[in-house]
Amino acid sequence: MNDITQLQSQLDQLTSELRLAQTRIQNLERRSKWKSSGFVGLAFVLACGVCTWSVNAFSSSKTSMVASLDTPPTKIKAPFEVDDDQGRVIMRVRDGDARIDRGIYFYNEGGRAVVDVTSIQEGGGGGKIRVTAAGPEKTAELDQATGITITGVRESEGITINRGAKKSLVLGAELGAKGEEPGGSIKIYDGSEKLGATLSAKTKGAVLKLFGGTDKPVASLQTETTGASLTIFGTGSKPAATLTNDTAGGSLKIYGSTDRPVATMQSDGDGGNLWISDKAGQQVAGVIASDNGGVVKVMKSGDQKTYTAINAVDAGLGMAIRKAGVRLVFVGASGENGEKGSVFVYGGGENPIAGLTSYGGGKGLVAIFNQALSPIAMLAESDKHPGGGNITASDPSGNGIFSAGYTGEAGDACVTRKNGLWCMGTNLPLQMK
Where are the domains of the chain? Predict the structure, then answer.
């Protein structure tokens, strides 16, 4: 019985004795005249008794409380376990042996350890806390020797840092693509708990994504085995621009309303290239560094062999026009050193059928060619009489058969016939010279 219970019992007993004494005093009052003094005396004696008992009782209580503070705590020797009302283990305390670390182990209803707090000997000794989600392949550990280790396949199996009641950062794991291993991830949230950025690892690379207040990224930086890529997104998660590099060099692509680029800038072994595409993704214009120079090429959509190209390269200087791959016109520099300006017209092959060029110190020449590339007709300035003109015609082998031109005073014409050369001069009929 504790002190309070004992005090209550003694008070009840004294009350009963006081009532009994009062009854006796009333009986005595009928027999004597010392009623008042006797009653007062008895009451005084009883009151003194109660006071003395109360002081002793509370003194005993204080002594008992002080003594309880000095009492050693209850000790339970490990190993032991705590079970539920069905006999299933809730907690075990192990002293440790060669198979299991010393510590406390908590179990789920299936009898599997899901949380343990242990002391370890490796690494100089220390403590470890481990939380297991679904087996040893999905755990979170805080180890004095090795630090924090997270093993799992979902972000919920990682570490979450909150700002108030809202998520601020999640450090966990990401599911890998089909056939790939999962990797680690970091997710950062803004003040309204919207995703702001993610960093995740994948096979032989990593991906950094930035978000703009929605669940769709506005930019992505991704590393690969041989290079990296930066993507800026437009509406609907479609790329607006990409910047990539690989073993061949770098590439910048600009996109329109589709997932096909409308402009591409890239590098190769000769230098840089710029390509412009239509809305269907077909290349229609390009600026290309090549052969120690540049090429500007304008093409028909859907037909890469129909184009106009302007070249300023070692191979030549000029403009070429092709249709369906067939050469039509060339305008540019000709001659051994590119010292002459020329225009050539083609008739379905790679050899010209007509040409306009300069020669001999700035003189002009117009020529018609046969399929063997032999000139068969020419219009040029006279070599003998500068300022005058000549017309010449040849046979298929290039032998002259007709010539007419300025003679210095008038015109003259000659024709080669089977029986000789016949010429026609001023006031003279056609005659043989």
Answer: 3-67, 80-151, 159-223, 374-433
